[in-house]
Amino acid sequence: MKTIHVVAAIIKDTNKKGDPIIFATQRGYGDFKGGWEFPGGKIEEGETPQEALQREIMEELNTEIKVGELVDAIKYDYPAFHLSMACFWAEVISGDLVLKEHEAAKWLTKEELDSIEWLPADVTLIERLKRGM
Prior knowledge:
Elements: E1 3-14, E2 20-27, E3 36-37, E4 40-42, H1 49-61, E5 63-77, E6 82-95, E7 102-109, H2 120-132
């Protein structure tokens, strides 16, 4: 089975009340169109995961991020491929998170993380994120 290596940004901030919030995006294309995920993409040859994540967020959201520590390395078998996804904490340095490839986006509090339909690989992170928020 083909393995696809990707990175995902768990972009965090705080809302007006000071509660931690996390940015989620809804896929706008492909087999998983409409599913919710953490933004990111494929690692290109010669890139570190952190470099790939910075590039992907700039391409997809026109935003510069600071990549933080690794949250988890998710391994997930989809029917057509094996996904290896390195998930990092991230913070916005500059930009307005402009949706170029996604249908929608939301900032979610810990209590709202279960309110959307996450893609299967991303679901595995939700409980861990709740503990870390």
